[in-house]
Amino acid sequence: MKAKIIKSTTAVIVLLITAISTMGQGIPIHIDPKYGKDSITRMECAKNISLYSEFYKQENYKDALKPWHYVFENCPQASKNTYIKGAVIYKNLIAREKSEAVKNQLIDSLMKVYDQRIVYFADKGTVLSYKAADLYGYKGDNAAADVNAMLKQAMELEGKESKAAIVSIYMQTAVSLYKSTQIDGNEVINAYTFSIETLEKAKAYNKALVNQGGKYKERGEKELENIETALNNVEALFSESGAANCDALIAIFEPKCVENNNNIDWLKKVTKLLDKNDCTESPLFAKASEQLYKLDPSAESAHNLARLFLKKQKFDKADKYYEEASRLEEDPTTKALYYYEWSTLAMAQENFPKVRELSNLALKFNPNDGRPYLMIGRAYASTKNIGQEDVERKSVYWVAVDCFVKAKQADTSITVQANELIGTYNQHFPNKEEWFMAIGTGEGDSYTVGGWINVSTKVRF
Fold first, then answer.
1. pLDDT tens per residue across span 433-458
2. Does residue 162 lie in a domain region?
3. Rounded-to-integer distance, Cα 140 and Cα 147, Å
4. Number of domains the chain contains
5. 403-420: per-residue pLDDT in tens?
6. Beta-bridge partner residues of 236
């Protein structure tokens, strides 16, 4: 009974399609060449289109496959929907398949759907993007070479209309190929440059869509968000790839320095990449950082310059830019870091009161970082000429060790370092007899270390 109902339904559908196709401007199916080579094939194609479409609407992809496949093989020009729906059918079947062998066969069939769609309906760039994204989703880095090649071609064809997600996958596969030694570092650099250029074009294009308003405004706004994410992804992938060494980065950016001398975004990108890859001693970093600060005085650019001049031992300039960086920075943790780094500069200049001042500011903004305590302790331990007696001068080691103890209490990550310092300076505590004879206090008594330190501690030997 069930079989008869299906046959009856099919016959009705065929009659309806035949009748509809003769109406209006449509060409009757039995003489329309896009439905097949002859009238019999064309009518059979119409029947199968209707049949798989019904199953498709019901999300019965398993039963939709056979009639769909007839259309795919015998009337490939019938409709672009054959390929759009065919991809959906195969992806659903792949998701439900448990056998790896069968799943791989279905993936191969899905790839053929994309290939044939390009043959009959063009739009090669877009379709290659779909094909590559799906292949990467199923095969991952095992298909990196094929995916990378497809996406490069797709991006060349799509240009400014390239999708951000596709560019991210392209860069990801390039890095994967480099790490598996299938391509060299120069090819990763080329992939990075091509990715950034493509995203910048896409950014300009989508900004124009947004500015035009109308029906494409929302789409443009969403894609602009995707582009920003992709730009960050590409930068991260490149900088962490291992191919982004200093020589490579300088080779990329040095020739573009003059033309981008007033491009704040470009200068930020360059300084960020050079900084992340420990290329801060290069002349390019210095040039880009100073120009960036001139155009856009910010905490980040001031910090770059401070570290640059610190390495070059130009302490006056480093001091100036650390002051600027600390003043301009709003994030408490980062602000604390700047104060801590600034204290290392003061330490190098043996300005011990300033070391304590800056370290205390660092602790104010980030009390969980023990390093400023270590820095204060070192400043105390390095101080000379405290008190009148030789034994008195050794009292600085008590307050130094007090700081080292506070350091490991505040930050367990530096416990080993703090304990090493405690062990070192414990050995320099005053001699008990000498101390008692000179000062007159004993173990456990309170004592204030004099001079600029002016801090109370406990007497111990």
1. 888 887 878 888 999 999 999 999 99
2. no
3. 9
4. 2
5. 999 999 999 999 999 999
6. none
